[in-house]
Amino acid sequence: MLQQALVILAGGGIGDALMAIPVARVLRDGGREVTMLANPSTKRLLAGHPLLKEVIVDDQGGTHAGLSGFLRLVSEIRDRHFGEVLVLWSTVRTAWLSYLARIPVRAGQAGRLLYSHLYTHPVSVRSEKGDTRSHWVDCLLDYPRALGIPVHATSPFLEITDEDRERSHRLFAEIGIPIDRPRVVIHAGKGISLAGKIWPTGMFARVADELARRWEVAVVLSGSEPEKPLVELILSECKETVYDLSGRTSLRDLAGILSGSLMMICPDSGPMHIAAAVGTPVVAIFALAKDFPDRWHPHGVPFEVVRKEPPPCPPGCIKEKCKDFRCMAAITSEMVLEAAERLRARLPEGHRDVENNAKGKKWTSA
After folding, report:
1. Are β-strands 243-244 and 263-267 bridged in parallel, bridged antiparallel, or unpaired?
2. Which domains does the chain have, with CATH numbers?
3. CB neighbours of 200 closer than 8 A, spacing ≥ 6?
4. What pTM does this model have?
5. Could you tell me if 273 and 135 are in contact, meaning their C-beta atoms sit under 8 angstroms apart?
6. pLDDT, tens digit, 9 for 90 and up, residues 290-318
């Protein structure tokens, strides 16, 4: 019987979940069955992932709310008899969960007064020691390393199913894009409540227009339902035909749409990591001084980072309190277009065959 391992990522976002997939890979390669504890939106993205036996939801807004809900979750985890847990998103809640569930081997974040003593294998987080260069994928692999599990180079991935592909084909048909037409996806939003942290809409519109003219591709704007007004503003500034899929896609739908696309253009965001996970090259906008592109860039695919160096952020600026996001305004549409041209020049000719690429591009290097 295979040893049962639990990976806890209940507090992270889309990118955090996808960058945890390499941890699941090395656990599986080490002879373990892997279950992930995640939030509801992450489960919808990772459900059915071939590396995961199960995705359990920590429903803090419902079933697992409050003390009684937390104890219910403890019981659910304890009943599965995990031998190991890797807490990639450490909080007081997740630390006590792993401890009270009586999982004998527990790896989690070191250096936290309130809960690190609950772990049998505390792990020093590199970013807290000033490391801004290591990619987060490799930082997360420090958790299996702490348990003596062999680690190898691997990247996040999502498997695109026939159902995902058929759904994306229907969506393209609904907005008038032939399946075999090369396409570029632009995702302007970041899914956070910082409106100023969006690259100016006029810049996105100029990039969309220029790519539609220069490359004769279908330029598709994606976005969640809350991001739809942002997309509509960009569309109002476009002069060429640009297609709108905002508010019409789930995370799985977005993965299907990105699979087989020529490239994605977006800020550092969860959708950026979805693109990388399905093998789609990315032009990524990293404007803020503390965006740290070495840590967060798309992993495992060809990419270009667009960034003004040094970022024009005043000393001590943090994004939650920034008044003007001048770093965003410092990035021009021409900088993004030049990055897109560089990235396109690096891609093999076969990458333009979108149907072939939709079956799963495997890049040997990024």
Report:
1. unpaired
2. 3-146 (3.40.50.2000), 163-358 (3.40.50.2000)
3. 328, 329
4. 0.92
5. no
6. 789 999 999 999 999 999 887 777 777 77
